[in-house]
Amino acid sequence: MTITGVIGLLIVASFFGLMIIFNIVRNNSTEVNLRTIPAYTKLKRAIGLAVEDGKQIHVSLGRGGVTSPQSASAFVGLSMLERVIRIASAGDLPPVATTGNAALSILAQDTIRGTSGEIDLKKTKVSSAGGGLVGLTPFSYAVGTMSAIRSDTVSANILAGWYGNEIIWLTTAGERQSSFTMAGTAHLPAQAVMYSSVEEPLIGEELFAGGAYLDAGSMHEASLNAQDVFRWVLVGGILIGILLKLAGFGQLIQNLLVGTP
Amino acid sequence: MKLKFRAPLATAITIAVGLVVLSGYFIPAAASLRFISLRVGMVLAAVALLVGVFNLLSVHFRKIADKDSKGGYSFILVVALLTTLGIGIYDMYKAYAFGNPNFEWTNWIFTYIQRPVETSLMAVMTVSLAYSATYLLRRKMNYLAIGFFFVVLLVLLGTISLSVISFPILEDIRSWIVHVPAVGGARGLLLGIALGTIATGLRIIMGSDRPYEG
Questions:
Q1: By C-alpha distance, which of A167, A145, A134 is closest to A58?
Q2: Which of A159, A252, B127, B158 lies at a 20 to 30 A Cα distance from B43?
Q3: pLDDT > 90: what percent of chain A?
Q4: A78: closest CA among B194, B193, B56, B212?
Q5: How would you write A44-88 as a 3-class SS string?
Q6: Buried b (16+ CB within 10 A) or exposed e, A30-49
Q7: Would you say A19 and A59 are in contact if contact means Cβ atoms under 8 Å apart?
Q8: Which residues of chain A make contact with B203, given a CB cutoff of 8 A?
Q9: Does A134 sit within 8 Å of B56, measured CB to CB?
Q10: Is B133 in CB contact (< 8 Å) with chain A?
Q11: What is the pLDDT of residue A118?
Q12: What are phi and psi of A161, to 5 degrees?
């Protein structure tokens, strides 16, 4: 095993350990200490308004596959879908979900069925929740999703998943409908597009904090704490790396990382 | 009495496969198991594609049958899908039966229908992106938005390659923006995304997050 492999294993193992420790600490404490992310505060309000007005929340899960590195943002979208179904369960209409990937579509329908079953949602509500595949290519997915956004029954849109630059059509469609639109993705160019076109963009890792802000459980908050610890470790590591490189150890470090003597 | 075996079984399989794939990255002996798991995953994803296409068809058949909804677009979609599927199957048959794997008709569809449509949409998207950048200042008039707008403008001007209006200084500024602050910012964002991805993956492996009926 190379040193890079050992470091990777250490990072994952210590991340795992920290999550468990922070989860135990969280379970013994009632205090929730999260910085304010305006997008999530406004989302909770938008869900409340949708329930009051008898409108729907639209959750778009993007077109990321489940067997690729794009899957993480798709899984966060699924986690948000589950929370939104629970929070909006008192409303007349269930949230509607759209996806651009077949496997993700099956998982979305499974999430809708599972969550609805747990909270005893009426079967008529579940069948109209969707979760279907609206398009297989980036553009066809965007065009298919636009019709869901433009629906008169939809009052808020959550775009959480993997998107390319075609997200511009979804965000502008939401703005034109004057409906609340929140968007987050792990794809950097799409984040720049979102920043310029959406009312509430989720930049960087803010998308991955969704579960913690929507009260999905103490493990979500614990994972945010673990991320904070690792962020400082990375900052320290980068600074030490700069100092070592300035001191002339750059080549030695590179050799160690690739496993050559 | 109705026993629910599905949820714990699905969770157990997810945790086991997740651990195998994760350990395959670090432990050389587990690498072959990781490849097998990923291959099975890919085959299942391909089967899911078929299920997804049937789902898409059923949704649009329902829309065509529903008198209240605009079923015209759905009708076009169903006809296009079935025609392309039929042509694809015919090309496959030709390839296996006559040893002629040039997929002539499928290539024709992609070259003369799919590609022009996607290119046109790409052009529309370029206009949408430019419009969105100008609209930003109308919606968010703050220092960050103003900075974002002028950086976009500088990079665009530095990228224009017209011999009559060439400004070498703008090209240098563009190159500096793209190679120094943009790369630095992108790395910072990617580190955050990487940490978020690790956290999401570990929550699924621990069974804390279950993006399935579990």
A1: A145
A2: A159
A3: 35
A4: B212
A5: HHHHHHHHHHCCEEEEEEECCCCCCCCHHHHHHHHHHHHHHHHHH
A6: eeeeeeebebbeebeebbee
A7: no
A8: 19, 211, 219-220, 223
A9: yes
A10: yes
A11: 74
A12: 165, -155
Query: For residue A43, what are its two tokens?
Result: 């989302």
Q: How far B106 CA lies from chain A's nearest CA (Å)? A: 16
Partners of A58 in the β-ladder: A96, A157
pLDDT surpassing 50 at residue B1:
no
The residue among A77, A10, A26, A11 whose CA lies nearest residue A225 is: A26
For an interface test with A, give the residue of B200, B204, B206 to mutate (most A CBs within 10 A).
B200
| pTM for this predicted structure | 0.87
- With cut-offs at 50, 70 and 90, classify the pLDDT of residue A261: low
**Which residues is A157 bridged to in the sheet?**
A58, A181
A56 and chain B: CB distance < 8 Å anywhere? no
How do the domains of chain A map onto residue ranges?
Answer: 3-29+219-258, 38-216
- In three-state form (DSSP H/G/I as H, E/B as E, the rest C), the secondary structure along A200-247 is EEECHHHHHHHHHHCCCCHHHHHHHHHHHHHHHHHHHHHHHHHHHHHC
Q: Which two tokens mark B161?
A: 């390659």
State the residue for tokens 């984040």.
Answer: A191
- Any chain B CB within 8 A of the CB of A78? yes
Q: Which residues pair with A97 in a beta bridge?
A: A59, A130
| Assigned CATH topology for domain A38-216 | Rossmann fold (3.40.50)
Of the candidates B190, B171, B205, which has an alpha carbon nearest to the alpha carbon of residue B11? B205
